[in-house]
Fold each of these.
Amino acid sequence: MMLGIDFESSTPIYLQLREQIVKGIATKRLAPGDSLPSVRQLASDLGINLHTVNKAYAMLKQEGFITLHRQKGAVINSPDSFKTSDEYLKQLCDDLEPMIFEALLRGINEQEFSIVCSDIFKKIGGEKS
Amino acid sequence: MMLGIDFESSTPIYLQLREQIVKGIATKRLAPGDSLPSVRQLASDLGINLHTVNKAYAMLKQEGFITLHRQKGAVINSPDSFKTSDEYLKQLCDDLEPMIFEALLRGINEQEFSIVCSDIFKKIGGEKS
């Protein structure tokens, strides 16, 4: 699976890496037991700092998506390890709230917002199958 | 309106500032014509870098939320200035997509996600009135 960085994006690089790996797991391009590139390798391939890759991997570990083995490196966990939690649900609300505030300001109502979400669910359904 | 920073958050400080100002406009605590604190004042009050405040204000200006006057400083625009645009809708999809990927991974389906969004719309409706 190819990982890429958008250096123009306002999203920090470590969060971009995290998002892509989460997307890889969701679309089954990364399966439980698969190894991610080593920190050194990925930093070198993408031309970014070791510390940035470390930060992404540490976050994914903290969230239960990967395990960091001393020898095998970063390995994708089984789905049981990242079931929903109260902590995650709170984070989801905290992330959605400012987006919904802005949507309302831009004149997008609840129904229109819901259609945007629904379209993304449909698109992802297509990518997964 | 009080602005505050969570130094523990994974969200960059300039984006936290931006989110709070957008929220202030959405909840009408900031009205068109209101002035924001000067860059120097806000940086000093929050104990952050001038450059960080500048970055937040530049982003808000770029998005049409504020105008930067040489004398009056940062002033909230009228709602006509931040109507929805194709660019915004694309950004909204780009922001929602990774969140929806993760929700699916965490075992949250479209209907459950929709309920989370709907609850936030209801909560905001309460804060606005």
Amino acid sequence: MSFIDTLKYDERGLIPAIIQDAENGEVLMFAFTNSTALKKTLETGLMHFYSRSRNKLWMKGEESGHTQKVVEMRVDCDTDALLIKVKQKGGACHTGFRSCFYRKVEPLAVDTDKYTEDGKKLFNPEDVYKGKKKKAR
Amino acid sequence: MSFIDTLKYDERGLIPAIIQDAENGEVLMFAFTNSTALKKTLETGLMHFYSRSRNKLWMKGEESGHTQKVVEMRVDCDTDALLIKVKQKGGACHTGFRSCFYRKVEPLAVDTDKYTEDGKKLFNPEDVYKGKKKKAR
């Protein structure tokens, strides 16, 4: 018996995963995972997700080398969302930023129509993904 | 024109929202919101969500008083997830814990079959919700 089998997955068999930096608490990314990807995550110690657009399981960093070593895994009150604390190698975002949440709504108002970019850029995605348009790999 | 109209909502018109404590970085809860709830959030300064199970817009704390004052709102690289930093009044979780993520997987292994509860309990839900079984209100 595994806790993985008792989690509540949505109609697509997915569960939301919030990825947080284990050291400084920065939220790095948000993605969906599933039971197979979770088993793989626990077996390898490295974060695996399920991509809806590509319809496949993927390991974060499989192409970029920017892996996420799992330090702690938490579950919410309804057992339908995960909070996973990781040790992030390089940047979590495929755009080159450390966190995918590199833009903020400023001013904090309904009529704000663009974002303020204030995240920390770590790499040039063209160097890492060899010019191919890839998402967060 | 509002950034709210440019966000990518899922097929149900929802967008995931990660709620983080603006002061200490603790992830407090995860829920879905929508464009109407977001407009309401920005107009009032208090976090509003959309409940799939109850099929209605709700303000966090509308019954418990445990409101979330929005301090910062961030959007991810794909514009399909939000990270919202808040000033939390009382506990975020309907179970009485400060965070909904009050349980962790320990040991971090596939065959772990129960959770370790280590969150901070702030209130007795029966006192706050007057004995009614309610979710995170």
Amino acid sequence: MGDKIIDAAEVAKHNSAESCWVVLYGKVYDVTEFLPNHPGGTQIILQLAGKDATEEYDPIHPSGTLEENLKPEACLGTIDPETLSKISSKAVSERKAERTRTEAPAMSTLLNLDDIEAVAQKQISHKAWAYYYSAADDLFSKSLNNTVYRSILLRPRVFIDCTNCDLSVSVLGQHKLGLPIYVSPAAMARLAHPAGEAGISSACSKFNAMQIISNNASMTPEEIVKNASPDQVFGWQLYVQTERKKSENMLARINRLKPVKFVCLTLDAPVPGKREHDERTRAAVQTSSETSLLQASGGTPMEGGGGIGQQLFAGTDPSLTWKKTLPWLAEHTKLPIVLKGLQTHEDAYIASLHAPQVKAIILSNHGGRAMDTAPPAVHTLMEIRKYCPEVFERVEVWVDGGIKRGTDVVKALCLGAKCVGVGRAPLFGLGAGGVEGVERVLEILSAEAKTAMRLLGVEKVEELGMHHINARAVEQQIYDGPAGLNALMPLVKPKL
Amino acid sequence: MGDKIIDAAEVAKHNSAESCWVVLYGKVYDVTEFLPNHPGGTQIILQLAGKDATEEYDPIHPSGTLEENLKPEACLGTIDPETLSKISSKAVSERKAERTRTEAPAMSTLLNLDDIEAVAQKQISHKAWAYYYSAADDLFSKSLNNTVYRSILLRPRVFIDCTNCDLSVSVLGQHKLGLPIYVSPAAMARLAHPAGEAGISSACSKFNAMQIISNNASMTPEEIVKNASPDQVFGWQLYVQTERKKSENMLARINRLKPVKFVCLTLDAPVPGKREHDERTRAAVQTSSETSLLQASGGTPMEGGGGIGQQLFAGTDPSLTWKKTLPWLAEHTKLPIVLKGLQTHEDAYIASLHAPQVKAIILSNHGGRAMDTAPPAVHTLMEIRKYCPEVFERVEVWVDGGIKRGTDVVKALCLGAKCVGVGRAPLFGLGAGGVEGVERVLEILSAEAKTAMRLLGVEKVEELGMHHINARAVEQQIYDGPAGLNALMPLVKPKL
Amino acid sequence: MGDKIIDAAEVAKHNSAESCWVVLYGKVYDVTEFLPNHPGGTQIILQLAGKDATEEYDPIHPSGTLEENLKPEACLGTIDPETLSKISSKAVSERKAERTRTEAPAMSTLLNLDDIEAVAQKQISHKAWAYYYSAADDLFSKSLNNTVYRSILLRPRVFIDCTNCDLSVSVLGQHKLGLPIYVSPAAMARLAHPAGEAGISSACSKFNAMQIISNNASMTPEEIVKNASPDQVFGWQLYVQTERKKSENMLARINRLKPVKFVCLTLDAPVPGKREHDERTRAAVQTSSETSLLQASGGTPMEGGGGIGQQLFAGTDPSLTWKKTLPWLAEHTKLPIVLKGLQTHEDAYIASLHAPQVKAIILSNHGGRAMDTAPPAVHTLMEIRKYCPEVFERVEVWVDGGIKRGTDVVKALCLGAKCVGVGRAPLFGLGAGGVEGVERVLEILSAEAKTAMRLLGVEKVEELGMHHINARAVEQQIYDGPAGLNALMPLVKPKL
Amino acid sequence: MGDKIIDAAEVAKHNSAESCWVVLYGKVYDVTEFLPNHPGGTQIILQLAGKDATEEYDPIHPSGTLEENLKPEACLGTIDPETLSKISSKAVSERKAERTRTEAPAMSTLLNLDDIEAVAQKQISHKAWAYYYSAADDLFSKSLNNTVYRSILLRPRVFIDCTNCDLSVSVLGQHKLGLPIYVSPAAMARLAHPAGEAGISSACSKFNAMQIISNNASMTPEEIVKNASPDQVFGWQLYVQTERKKSENMLARINRLKPVKFVCLTLDAPVPGKREHDERTRAAVQTSSETSLLQASGGTPMEGGGGIGQQLFAGTDPSLTWKKTLPWLAEHTKLPIVLKGLQTHEDAYIASLHAPQVKAIILSNHGGRAMDTAPPAVHTLMEIRKYCPEVFERVEVWVDGGIKRGTDVVKALCLGAKCVGVGRAPLFGLGAGGVEGVERVLEILSAEAKTAMRLLGVEKVEELGMHHINARAVEQQIYDGPAGLNALMPLVKPKL
């Protein structure tokens, strides 16, 4: 690493693919050779070529990323701080202005998750909001994820002592949780708030809630679990990389972390979905960019040139199969496996045949972010009940997507879910009020879920059942077999 | 009680939990010791500490409340009237301004219940409106209560002499009523108008309509029935208190009141629902309060710290059961029991096994105020028809929730209801035009119901039946048994 | 009749129930004694007491009304024309201003019935619009009348020679019509345009379309059919009056009119519906009236004190029955009887047992004006198909309500209707452009219906059938028997 | 052809039906005699009488039209260019202004078909937009065409290697296409952009996509296929003309064009639909026209006097039948026949009996432009599956209508379609960005379809099937037989 003091004017000259320098944390780096290897694409770096890229870079790269990817000699020296202001990127300063324009209200005045989302939208950058908010195509599945819960009615019972109510559950056969509500793996928490994924961890510890760490977290797993007790329950999300060695190295790191109790292999996004809200922020940046490199390069990129979501996706392997991937995984970790992203009873059934390596499955359409018009988890839950209820006995069934109210949580539990994940809500909580905002999210959902359970005359989560809900409207919508003519289908024997 | 003349400036000094004085009806009280015992919470008093609290206090406390709760020595003396204006609470004066801003139109120009609600919203304070209007969570059940009636079609018959039409019904096997429409127990009528619950009683007497007195009425039962003839039919609503002695004392008072013909035990709200409209008015007051005590106290209260609804709820016992509560009740009153708040055929069936102590059940989701996505009474009516129609022979079935039109009343009667309650409408009537406004509500509903009956070719209420309606849309939505696969369920034998 | 010249100032003094004079067509009448006998109520006259009432009176009373109702001596003399302007009613002059504010576009630029309604709304007085537009309660049935057609799909066929298309039909076994579209009896055409019902007749003659003359027409039957050829087909609508003699006299007049081919006995409005748009215009007039007589009279009238609809209704007998009324009718006319307003298969079945006196039935919910949430005619058509299809063989089935497009006409014909009535559309046509506007309505519907038939591959009306439509959405909504549990019901044997 | 130089002032005098001159491409023509023979009607020419009509004429007439229709002596000479500006039509200049008001954004920033339509709406003339956008009556079928796809859910599968995805298909048993997406025959591409249908051809060649040339293309077939390789796949759409010889001549020309691989006989519009958006632009022009000839001519034309759609329609024969038309066609071409516009299973079944002359059928409701409330192609697909699945084995089934997303394409393929047509989208693409805009449309749909296939775990188009979708919502809506009482119908044996 060089010790030279470098003038910003000098840095500014190196603003092309031929010679590309950037400033990060006060140091000047020559990233010309790294350009083609950047998982997020060349484009995004070239826009910051010759500039201080720290504000853009920092919230989406965990610490250690620089060291892992650049050779020591890439560091050319230290930027002369007096000259630095000349090369700050305009987009960055704009975002800053945006970010501080309102003061957040007291979290206690926010009564529900919509309130929190509304505050977060004002607090965080438009780019971060667009990334969190976005979903595939026309947001149909994202919307259905929630409205399907609204179409299920609850059946309150009377004259049952409801003095006590206990939300605790056990997962994976051994881990006691304070809530049946966990934080789904969602990327880039530091876009919302500097506390990042570690802040979510801190909020979870207060409720003894489970957290699944995103493969694309903006902090390292080690940083996230640093302050956790050994009993706190974390999962670690794995997107298998085409470059297997990378995944194996990560698994080795994860195996060493006590609080991480399982690996969550995500299957519902083998290719990136099309998230137009997210992509438009990228397009906007490109359009306003002086260098206009995209235009110059010609063409109309569709695949892999989109928003944050598509950048994060780079390197993920689309060739996973039941036969190859699970055995490979068994070689590299003894942790239980949780499969995330199942959306049909057929796949749930196949997964259940892989117990006990697979201990739980997560029914999820990736928050509506992968394929639009994919079914909500409630549909898949009811498909399993209809075609292969034995799945519930072989593996735990978790669900996520669309949870806005404690009543939604309770309905999922009635349908057979063991626990229920929330993804966007904690991120919006983080954006609205940092750690306290995430706590508020968990507090609201817990209190609402408790009220619902007490009005159903239920003291413990495991007492909840199908007799507590009227899900007839949804029953009339779920998959009815390929024949489609109202015939009840026997289970289609799956090919393994 | 002290006779001293006290200066307002002196009162103003006692504005904390350490020493808390308030002025009520011209007297100064030291309520420091009472603070922790206030059923509505410490908070609400501390906001008025050192001030004249009369306007806040008066419309929500029946007379005698002071005497019941404070020792005589708590009264320190009389406020010096010349100094009083200094300590009037700002919130109060604001509310006053609000309340008088429009002149109400003649009641005869209001053609339907929506007209009346719209006028009331202008006439009453925002806080009162929010309390009446609010319902649980997203108001889904409140809305469904009404729209479910819209989805039922009426089947008019022709060439039937419809010169005469008689709305009278008998309830509880003996009491003749002029209308099958009664006033549901709804709290805090004096928030709408000084005439309060006694005003509602006066309007009911004109139509020989039944009224159920709220457990949280803003007047005493004795005041409410004072001008009633012995034949006028009242019920008294009981929320059983954790401190049983309080409930027993009330029952003793009720047993002595001739016009009260039955006790209505409310079961649909063993814990308070989450009514955000109501809670937001509380939050708004707290936010604007100079003392900002809530902030100081820290934390983010969720349970029991909400709006008027949650204050009223304090002290209610959530541990009632079929086995314990009905026998206890039998010890303290010989009046017939009406159980309010049943929402499943299972509970209706169990209740019917408690005849003849239980003479009627009220199918109700508490106006959508307890649990959102709870079923409307129409669903429960149709569930009973489907699974256990014998219930109709053992007990009377009353319903409430969502009634906006006379056709709604007639549809409920066709489905088997004996009579139909309205809760918010009389309160809005009271707010819009006092006693005359309540009369207008009953007049509109009666006239509309009569027109509907005549167009159906029906002269008497008891002739109405399932052949007068097409409820097929609702049939396709009601509970279909826990299996959920379109199988007709035999009655689930309930556990007692 | 007096010949005196009377000064307006003198007339103006007689403005109370004690002495009530009005000016009509330049003559002064003392109507004090007539006041209690006015079918439309005392109120409406008192508002015009002491004034020139001609503009209010003229468009809603057929000629001869004065002579029939007042004795000759009631005419006191002639108003001094120079003094007349002093006593013109304010409301009238306002209405005039309103009426002339826009110039109507060429009828040929109006492409559909909504265009025509929009123009009419600008051309006619608000009072007239409110009377035509209004329907019962919340306009649910009015709206459903139309949307139910939208939920039926057409099934176009290909490779069928559709060069020719013929809309003609025969009704009542003998009368050939150019169109299967007729003008329903709708009152008060002169409110829309001076051409009135005779103008509608003139437009119908151009298309050889049938017209049913309203019992409450603003012209006499004689005036309406004056220019008709003997072959033009009219029906005359009968509301049986409590004072039977009046109805018998009218029938005697009708029997003498060659072009009137049948009597249409209306059964769907034995009591007036509640039409709030209409009632509000009345309320508005009363409120702005200086004399404010309603206020003075006290009370809050609900029944019979409403808008134009309720005034017209006065005197109608609600006691008609199958047993009494049809034989009475047989005594007073030999014309075939068409029963209007059947809304259930039960009543259609009973009616069919009265063939051949009854030759046709009209399925109608009175344009949604009688009972809100009454079923649309399409429901009743499909009920008959389901429970008692033999009705189609015994009597002709006509329908009205909700027709906006030629495709709606064709769908009704596919379902078994012989012809299809339109009520509001010709009135709006009249309002938009007089006779030419009514022609445009018939022209648009005919052209649209022809296009639809040709695309279905159908040349003649009688070829249309159930295989040309997909009405499955509606089938799932129609009445399913009183048991309601998806059981197919045998026909309920009706009581006669 | 005359060589005289003619002054514009002289031309301007000939502006009536008696003597009608127009300027086209700098030449003056006397079209007086041609007036009654103009397929688009006399009206439209008279509006431009005495003026330079080039801008109006050019984009809707393929080259050669003048020569085909006018005798040489009709050309009177050359317009004096210095005088020309005096007779430019106002409407034209307005349209020009409109057309250039915005600069189109880079096609790569348009993320979906709605983006493209929005840009096109700004770029093209209002008249062109109205012609493309319009559909029959209330646009119900147009809307349903799209929303029916939204009501079908996709069923993503996991753990399937989705590295590869291949969109290629073979049609008509031999032609390999790069995409299962083709360009439907849509008229008047030069209204959108000068590149016209040849531009669409150029875009298609890049993707090896199929294009069907409209019978009413604004360029000749020869021009359109000029730059195509012999392997590029085109169809040519035939509307059979009443004047058979015209159609036969066209077929002879088509038979000589190598790239045209089949004839697409359109059956879904034997009479023109009523497209009010389109008709209103015509009405607007007529109204603003000084000559106001329509008014003068009197009457209220309904049939054939409408917008562009109706002009194009002139001359089409409505008398086609299975028996006469197919044999006639066999005499004039050996190309395979594709029948377009089938909307019932009955017609699909009959068509399948005409294999092998008929090689494919296109299920289409003409983009909702012929008959409103006609069923979407998805309904017809599912009808065929239900009643006569053997059709899929006898002929290829193609569909069009309502495609907005790649997921829509995939759903149609799952239901059994061989390929999927888009009509408006390429025209809007052309309007938004010329050839590049059409490419963008195909690129977006391809990329979206590929993503969907990969998330379904499908590599090749032919693997897609009913088990990949949940179409239960649609199954409940499709035709259920004429009995209508939920009985499954055996196939109605069709009359041939």
Amino acid sequence: MDTLNIAILGCGTVGGGVAQIITEINHDLSIRARTNIVLKKIVELSPSKASERFNLPLGLFCGGGKDLTGTEANEYIREIISSGEIDLVVETIGGKSDFVFNICLDILNSGKHLVTANKALLAERGKRIFGAAEAKNVKIGFEAAVCGAIPIIKTIQESFTGDKVLSVSGIMNGTSNYILTQMQDEKLEFSEALKLAQENGYAEADPLLDINGGDAGHKLILLIKLAFGIDVSKEDLSIIGIENITREDIDFASEIDAKIKLICYAKKVNGDIYATVRPMLVKNSNFLSDVSGATNAVRINNQYSGVHFLVGKGAGSTETAMSIVSDIVFIARYGDKIQNIPVNEESNLAESHKFVFPYLISFQTGNIPGTTGFITTAIGNQEINIETVSHNRHKGEKAMFSVATMPCTLGQIENAIQKIRSEKPGMLLSEPKIMPILY
Amino acid sequence: MDTLNIAILGCGTVGGGVAQIITEINHDLSIRARTNIVLKKIVELSPSKASERFNLPLGLFCGGGKDLTGTEANEYIREIISSGEIDLVVETIGGKSDFVFNICLDILNSGKHLVTANKALLAERGKRIFGAAEAKNVKIGFEAAVCGAIPIIKTIQESFTGDKVLSVSGIMNGTSNYILTQMQDEKLEFSEALKLAQENGYAEADPLLDINGGDAGHKLILLIKLAFGIDVSKEDLSIIGIENITREDIDFASEIDAKIKLICYAKKVNGDIYATVRPMLVKNSNFLSDVSGATNAVRINNQYSGVHFLVGKGAGSTETAMSIVSDIVFIARYGDKIQNIPVNEESNLAESHKFVFPYLISFQTGNIPGTTGFITTAIGNQEINIETVSHNRHKGEKAMFSVATMPCTLGQIENAIQKIRSEKPGMLLSEPKIMPILY
């Protein structure tokens, strides 16, 4: 039987989970891979902590188990990259720094396969990484980079090859979903729910990338690449986070049988790709509304096979590590026959003001007769059909105005708001919130 | 670029869908497969009908488009099997007859790959089929055989290789799920809902295999083979269909916030496999309770990555065909590196009376004081903890007695019922229904 020698860079939550699984079920993995899967070396700054947490022999760690300085760790990484003995490197350091970027490039350039959960790096600097792999005919496993344990990468790459993806959407950030679920179920304000998420280990000390939609955006960029074959940069995507969602928004969603979820959404229409990450009102009749807490869910709509849902753990130690280990087995099995990413296709990313959805628009107005007529006329003048209007939740001189529209573009809505602003300065007493509605 | 020449046997709902997809997106498929995918021949008794329905040129059909007798069709099938030109055969005739069994064996023995949706054949006569493929090192694609469009086969075979499956369960028969959904939503009796399913094309003229759990059993046998590596025969499985579910059962389920679903369930406990197909009470808090109509859903619980759900179309023309076409691309990509089924593992199928679940037991009794005390004592004497008891829904002299238990074995419940029967003949006025409860 052949042998596949593996090194792991970074033995934290995910890397440690990989080492744990490879150690615990090594015999099964080797049988499945028809290749001896051998974990040779781990580079980690604090081996004793990792060894204890993941029950790993200290001898596996470069340096024999003693704590490493950054310089020492870097030297061991360089040794692994230049070693002829290692076939595959698991990069679980994370981040998109030049340091990690160069390590990944050098791994590939040295003719070694790379398996990683690093969504930021692949989404923002993936072109050169995938290019290097192509040039050296080595493989990149990145199942763990999108939605942790959910096997969405291989599902698109290997199971939907007999179809055409029409749209990809879903709940792809567990932290923001946990926060929104807490706001909904426990009647918390955003800041209270965020604090709870941090206390319970669902949010990083710096949760910015989770709550501003950046992390979800990285995943969507990778899914767009796989499903539609085009490269999208983060700057081109229309990304809105959950920072400005209030309890009042959540309560109002409940009133119309909906929940607010941070949704990733990409759809191909006549060759154009519409893509966005933003809070949406998900009707309770939609499957995604049931996805609560740290769970992730991906919805794929295909031309021939219709709608699919994949639901599972979007993060976690062995949960994410499982995807990395499965990638290792896949590379052991199929090696150079694997195509890392699909061939580029001709498509354009459409501008966000062209997105067609039914929308909910809400803002504060004065509690003044004539308001409803003026606003609904301005909306109607933009050829937008209105489904429901409410002008209520009065607070003193103010009231909340909410309009649910039939499908229209964001551009039409922005025009209507512009008209109201120019013809009735002072009618809008708050910045309008515009959220797509998913039925 | 290499070429993969394909023949399709049977151009009905599924086979026609395969021909349609291969024809419509041939260029994409060939790029993805890095192989020219060429549909060479179709054998079909009524080509003109199939040609019209799936928009296929008559020239693709053996015989040039004229209707074939059975003998003529068989001769063309033999020609294909002995042809050196065909690389892969799609068998979409269906059924487990000797006729189809021998065709599949001969395809494999002639060194050709086989792709099929034939769950009955693979579940009941699969051992020799897979053995023949092994002997000739050719591949069998059977993604379409389990839950139509849901990519559950490849998910277990290729995406969960870094994990250990603990349990597989789900709703795997769309017809019975449609019938149960109609009984629930439209307040229909079983026979009315079945008639509606047939009128709307959700049930075959002979729906026996759908409603008696046989079709779901075939799928479970294949999933047990993939997830746990053991061969199970249909006779060994404990299979109960939905024929005896009444509106009263459905109504009672609603009262306790549950829905009745035909559930496939297989779980590994201490090396033993527990497996069954039967109606279960699925609590509304469980994701599976939302899966209605013809949709299928599979739940996988893994040791390292926890719970996954895959939801999608369990049947249909291009829906099922998509899985076949994806198998063709997979075989074109990876050819002889593919492992058809996992290596056999040591496991025993446990007997059904050892199944541990919380159960609901319900039967009619006389409306007689002392009944509740006697029955609950008999149940308690079997070391079963009771969660709730109700003795209501009185009809004249009769009343419905229902007990929800804490987790216990079916054997314990059967002992309790046996005791009640022997000590109080006449107390049970109907055959007890015993349904597991899924929380």
